[in-house]
Each structure stands twice: as C-alpha cells, then as structure tokens.
Amino acid sequence: MKIEITHIYVYAMDVYSFNDDPQSTTSQYLGHWNREGVIIPLDATMADSISNALDPKLRFEKGNHPEFDTPPGYYLPPLPPGLDKPVDAKDRLRKAEVYYPVRNRDFQRWRELKERGGDFRIFSSFEKIKLPTPIVFEFDEVCGEYKSRA
Fold first, then answer.
1. Is the N or the C terminus of the chain less surrounded, counting Cβ atoms within 10 Å?
2. How far apart are CA 48 and CA 30, in angstroms?
3. Could you tell me if 75 and 65 are in contact, meaning their C-beta atoms sit under 8 angstroms apart?
C-alpha cells in the first residue's frame, strides 16, 4: 500500500498569558471589553501609531519583557487622558455598546475573584500549502483482503 502526501495545512497559534513584568509600575492595556467583544478606541490606536514612529527610548509603555523582543518591544501605550474610562461605542448608553478599559492586572483580579479564566489561545485560519515534493510512504500488506460472507 502506498500513501502520497501532496499538500499540508498550517496554522499559527499565539498564547496570551495576561502577566505583567513584576518590576513594572504599569499594566499592559488589553483594550476596552464588554460581554460582546473587545474594541481599541481610536485615540489608543493613534497613540500606538505615534509610539511606533518614536525612538525606542521615547516609546509610551514597554511590554512585559522588552529585553527579549527584537526590535525592543512594547505593547499598546497607556491610554490618553480620559480614555481610561468606559467608552460608549454608539453614544446610546446601551449595555452591549459600553466597553470598559481592561489591563492585565484587571483580568488577573477578575480571575482570582471568580476562580475562572486562564491563558487565552488564538488560532489563525488554516492555510493549504502544496509540497514541492510529495512525501511518500509505502507499507507492506498487513492483512489480506476482507471478503464479506453475505
């Protein structure tokens, strides 16, 4: 028997641990959350874009372990003044449209209080890739052909 593999599927996985550097006085901003999802307010996104353009020494907020990142890493910057408060996504004060700022320390406190939650894993979509050369497996016959008695 011969098996020939001509394509494979690949995906990427990342894990969010929600840990901060114990030496840091800041906690990584994770976005504004509610039960419906997560948003990143425009002001925070703009601050991150500006931070990207700055010399690494001038960036807004260092990440959990910047010494391990190349180039020196950081995550989202601290929120601009006034945005470390709930955001009403559609200005209608409906519960599903109000998002609250969340940082690692907030999630850690929630996890301790509720005795739930853990690291978060995120997966990309599968991508089918054709192999340049098929992988071929050949097997000796293990058992004879099955014939029904009916």
1. C
2. 13
3. no
